[in-house]
Amino acid sequence: MRKRQVVVRREEPSRCSTISAQTITTVRYAECQKNHAASVGGYAVDGCREFMASGEEGTNGALTCAACGCHRNFHKREVETEVGYEHAAISSNGT
User: Which backbone phi and psi does 77 adopt, to 5 degrees?
Assistant: First the structure.
């Protein structure tokens, strides 16, 4: 399994500019990793490639995959974090 690491740096604003940062985090659930043959000492996955909620957000169905019937926790969690910076220049005389 390949692990991803995201490093977020905070930069102190200089006297001449201000920095505004916005962080956007996206969570996606990929292939199912439930071992269906664990009870007999084997290893077999069902081949479900992506989590699809079987119900609306806020219901119990939102945590169950419509494709394989497994709970969302069995699916590989992928987190993507994007940091966007916006610079605004300030004049040196304070106006």
Answer: -95, 125
CA angle, 34 as apex, 82 and 1 as ends, to 5°?
50
Does the pLDDT value for residue 21 go beyond 60? Answer: yes
CB contact at 8 A, 83 and 23: yes
Q: How far is CA 9 from the centre of its chain?
A: 19
Task: Return the pLDDT at 33.
Answer: 94
CA distances from 66 to 71, 72, 77 (A): 10, 10, 17
How far apart (Å, rounded) are the C-alpha atoms in residues 29 and 79? 9
Q: What is the mean pLDDT of residues 61-73?
A: 94
Q: Phi and psi of 47, rounded to 5°? A: 90, 5
Three-state DSSP class for 6? coil
